Every structure is written in C-alpha cells, then in structure tokens.
C-alpha cells in the first residue's frame, strides 16, 4: 500500500514526537495551567441540608472542581471515600484538594510515626483522587516557641513524605495568627516557609484571612516565588457592626484580588485558585458563589 508524501510527513512527525517526548511531558503539555475551584465551606449550610443537590447546583453554575471541608469518621459529608468519589464522578466534579486538620494527636513523637487516623485520612484522600491533603490549622500547643515550631515543621515534612508515597502532597492553609504571632524575631508564617520542603509541603495562601493583620499578600507572593501552588481567592469588606473585616463577593471588597492572582499566575507557581466566601451580607451563599465564579471569568480565568 502506498501513502502520499503528506501522509508520510504527518505520520512521521507524530512518530518522532512519540520517541522524543515522554508520556509525562505529553500530559504536561496538554494539562490545564490552572484550575478554578470552590471551597465547600462557602456553602456549608447547604451542604449540611442537601449535599447532593448543592453539588449539582455548583456544577450547573459552571464549577468543575471542589475542595472539601468536612471529613469526619472516614466520611466526606456522610459518604465514604468510595461513595463520595462516585457522587462527584456522576455529577461531573473533581476534588483535587481537601481540608483536614492535622493536630498533635496525629503524631507519636516517641515512635516517630503518624496515628492510624492520619494514615486513613491520606488513604481516603487518595481514593478521592486528591492532589493535595491540606491542614487548615496549627494548634496553639505547637507554636509556643520557635523551637517547638521548627520541630513540628519536621512533622509537616514527614506528612509530605507520607502523602508523596500515595501520589499526593501535603499542604498548609493560613488564617491570620501566622502573620501576627512572633516567635523570637520571626512570624509563625516565616518559620513555616523557611522550615518546610517545597517539594513536600504546599502552601495554600488565603489572601483574605490575612487582610486585617496588615500583611501584604501581593508582597508575600512576590517575595516567595513558586511557593503557593494553591491559593484561596477571597475578597474582604468591613462589617460596620463588628468593625472587623469579613469575606464578600469577589470584586466588591477592598482586597486587591486581581493583582494578587495575576502575580500568583506569573511567579507564585499557583495552579489551584480556590474561591472561598464565608460571609454573605444577607445574600444566599449559592448566589454569592455564582457571582464569585462570574467575576473570575471577567478577570480572564
């Protein structure tokens, strides 16, 4: 059978590509540069009342990625890991990350090993095909002194190794104390950044939680290139009753969200942009997160 020169060139080009490019590189070439997700804590009351209906509503809005905030007794929102994975698959959602606090009870300093419950957390995250297992809190008992902190950062790195063995990475999500509490001459957040291995421990920077502390999220991203693989995208507005800041619909508040996420794309190494809104100013949460996603679209995401 004869083939034309055009067919030969086309076939030869693809054959050459197959010999030169590894499967991993080919996948990377076609992988999305970033994803937009929703932290399910944003719709926590809806998830309590009707998790299935809420997830379907989010999918109808255009969300394709979610991040969980409810893992109790080896169940996600009342479903086992296998069941919840099927629920997400059936709706057309993926869950690349989730929040589960890793606390003092999860590490045996004498045995230098994790508890069965933390190992099960990692196991169930892997069943759900997560990329990141993220702890959103650092117990006060672990940050009494700089030495305490540094010792526990070894546990962070150990959790990173545990997650890596399961094909994932461990991560940490900040609140506000990390930028206000100092241990010696360094803030808690500085100690975290300096004493964790970026290859093992992902930093999920919440750009809203730190706003009221005076910390500059844009400067943090600029000064720590490649450290923020994941980011919580959040805007802030002052509550006139409490005189404190709270989250609001993206673009309605005072945080320079667009500048920060643009910088995160350029130098932050950010691939997961996770929308989170925790306060709603009287608007139904589902309406808020729909508006949040629409705003991200206007910003070119």
Largest sheet: 8 strands, parallel, barrel
**Count of spatially separate domains:** 2
Q: What is the topology, as strand order, of the major beta sheet?
A: 1-2-6-9-10-13-14-17
Tally the helices. 12
Rg computed from alpha carbons, rounded to a whole number of angstroms: 21 Å
Q: According to CATH, what is the topology of the largest domain?
A: TIM Barrel
What fraction, in percent, of the residue positions are helical?
Answer: 40-55%
User: What is the β-strand count?
Assistant: 17
For CATH, the homologous superfamily of the largest domain is named as: Divalent-metal-dependent TIM barrel enzymes
Strand content: 15-25%
CATH class of the largest domain: Alpha Beta
- End-to-end Cα distance: 49 Å
The run of helices and strands is HHEHHEEEEHEEEHEHEHEEHEHEEEHEH
Give me the secondary-structure category: alpha/beta
CATH architecture of the largest domain: Alpha-Beta Barrel
Shape: globular
Low-confidence stretches: 1-20, 22-30
What can be said about this structure in brief?
With 301 residues, the chain is of the alpha/beta class. Helices cover 43% and strands 20% of the residues. The strands form five sheets. It has an eight-stranded parallel β-barrel, surrounded by five helices. Strands 3-4-5 form a three-stranded antiparallel sheet. A two-stranded antiparallel ribbon has the order 7-8.
Which descriptors would you attach to this protein?
disordered N terminus; TIM Barrel; globular; 2 domains; 43% helix; 301 residues; eight-stranded parallel β-barrel; alpha/beta; three-stranded antiparallel beta sheet
């Amino acid at each position: 059978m004869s083939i034309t020169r055009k067919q030969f060139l086309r076939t030869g080009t693809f054959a050459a590509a197959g010999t030169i490019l590894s499967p991993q590189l080919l996948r990377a070439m076609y992988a999305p540069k970033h994803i937009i997700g929703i932290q399910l804590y944003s719709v926590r009351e809806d998830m309590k009342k009707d998790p299935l209906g809420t997830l379907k509503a989010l999918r109808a809005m255009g969300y394709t990625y979610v991040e969980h905030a409810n893992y109790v007794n080896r169940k996600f929102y009342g479903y086992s890991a296998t069941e919840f994975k099927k629920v997400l698959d059936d709706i057309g959602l993926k869950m690349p990350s989730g929040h589960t606090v890793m606390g003092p009870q999860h590490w045996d300093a004498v045995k230098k090993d994790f508890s069965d419950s933390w190992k099960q957390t990692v196991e169930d995250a892997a069943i759900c095909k997560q990329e990141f297992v993220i702890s959103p809190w650092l117990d006060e008992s672990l940050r009494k002194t700089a030495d305490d902190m540094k010792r526990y950062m070894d546990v962070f790195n150990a959790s990173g190794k545990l997650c890596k063995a399961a094909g994932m990475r461990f991560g940490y999500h900040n609140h506000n104390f990390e930028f206000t509490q100092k241990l010696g001459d360094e803030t808690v957040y500085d100690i975290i950044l300096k004493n964790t291995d970026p290859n093992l421990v992902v930093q999920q920077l919440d750009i809203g939680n730190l706003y009221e502390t005076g910390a500059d999220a844009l400067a943090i991203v600029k000064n720590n290139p490649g450290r923020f693989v994941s980011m919580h995208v959040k805007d802030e507005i002052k509550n006139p009753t409490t005189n404190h800041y709270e989250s609001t619909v993206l673009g309605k508040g005072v945080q320079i969200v667009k500048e920060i996420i643009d910088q995160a794309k350029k130098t932050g190494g950010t691939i997961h942009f996770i929308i989170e809104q925790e306060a709603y100013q009287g608007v139904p949460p589902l309406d808020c997160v729909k508006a949040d996603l629409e705003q991200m679209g206007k910003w070119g995401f």
